From TrEMBL:
It holds the Pfam family S1_2. InterPro entries: CvfB_fam (IPR014464), CvfB_S1_st (IPR039566), CvfB_WH (IPR040764), NA-bd_OB-fold (IPR012340), WH-like_DNA-bd_sf (IPR036388). This is S1-like domain-containing RNA-binding protein. Residues 4-63 form the Conserved virulence factor B first S1 domain. It comes from Aequorivita aurantiaca. Gene3D superfamilies: Nucleic acid-binding proteins, Winged helix-like DNA-binding domain superfamily/Winged helix DNA-binding domain.
Length: 276
């Protein structure tokens, strides 16, 4: 199946006046216009292309790189507002349409907005939305404390910098934890500083704790200190026990205690780990 709004690796089937026709294993075919074809190619070669809809709403291939892909967020420039909605520059020849009903606030020509790309189920067209909260959730988190994450800064307030975490969740970098110039639209690495009881995610841009210690290892060391130097967990403990006591995965736990053991900060016993 040729997937709309995504990169597809397709085979060059034949060359015609309009361009190269590409196909998949299911005999689906799409046109790659001549202006996007590679300098060197042969019939039968595989090529990676992005698929979207042309001005006549037909699937079309391009070797250009869009600023965002299906089910992801991007920071886009509004190039026009018409009676139908707004049109955003997303790096392709045909601009991305954002209908009025999908605008968090009325868009203005020349401004920049965080936009989510999805497929409208009624029209099967690629559409943008600036109502980002509709595509984020913090009920079922996929991150844990001290984990490195990818963030997109959505807006700055007096409280701090709001951000999208791994394209899935909402997070916040508190103003007292910001030590560099960051702006709306910035994409960068961050770390989960804390997950609050209501599942709100606190972020920091610097590695939490001691820079010389892997973040989860630093967390476990503090837990050991708080527990009097001993925790009834080791590398053979079941994942649920580790999750319940420390709130992290067994994989992260093993990596962290391996760091502490290598640094001679703990000993691993049959019934748990102990500070040296």
């Amino acid at each position: 199946m040729i997937k709309l709004g995504e990169y597809n690796t397709l085979e060059i089937l034949r060359e015609t006046d309009p361009g190269l026709y590409l196909g998949d294993d299911e005999e689906n075919v799409v046109l790659l216009p001549h202006k996007y074809k590679p300098e060197e190619y042969e019939i039968g070669d595989k090529i990676s292309v992005f698929i979207y809809l042309d001005n006549e709403e037909r699937p079309i291939a391009t070797t250009l790189d869009p600023f965002l892909q299906l089910n992801s967020f991007g920071y886009l420039h509004c190039s026009a507002v018409t009676e139908y909605g707004a049109f955003m520059d997303w790096g392709l020849e045909k601009q991305l349409f954002v209908p009025f009903k999908e605008q968090a606030r009325p868009m203005k020509n020349g401004n920049w907005y965080i936009v989510y790309l999805y497929i409208d189920e009624k029209t099967n067209r690629l559409v943008g939305s600036s109502k980002t909260n509709n595509f984020l959730q913090n009920e079922n988190l996929t991150v844990e404390p001290f984990q490195e994450v990818d963030i997109l800064v959505t807006h700055i307030t007096e409280k701090g910098a709001n951000a999208i975490v791994n394209g899935l969740h909402k997070g916040l970098i508190y103003i007292e934890d910001i030590f560099e110039d960051i702006r709306t639209g910035d994409k960068m690495k961050a770390y989960v500083k804390k997950i609050r009881p209501d599942n709100k995610i606190d972020l920091v841009l610097q590695t939490p704790g001691y820079k010389s210690i892997e973040p989860n290892a630093n967390f476990i060391r503090k837990e050991l200190e708080a527990a009097g130097g001993f925790l009834p967990l080791h590398d053979k403990s079941d994942p649920d026990s580790i999750k319940n006591l420390l709130g992290m995965s067994k994989k992260s736990f093993k990596k962290a205690i391996g760091t502490l053991y290598k640094d001679k900060q703990i000993v691993i016993k049959e019934d748990g780990i102990e500070l040296v």
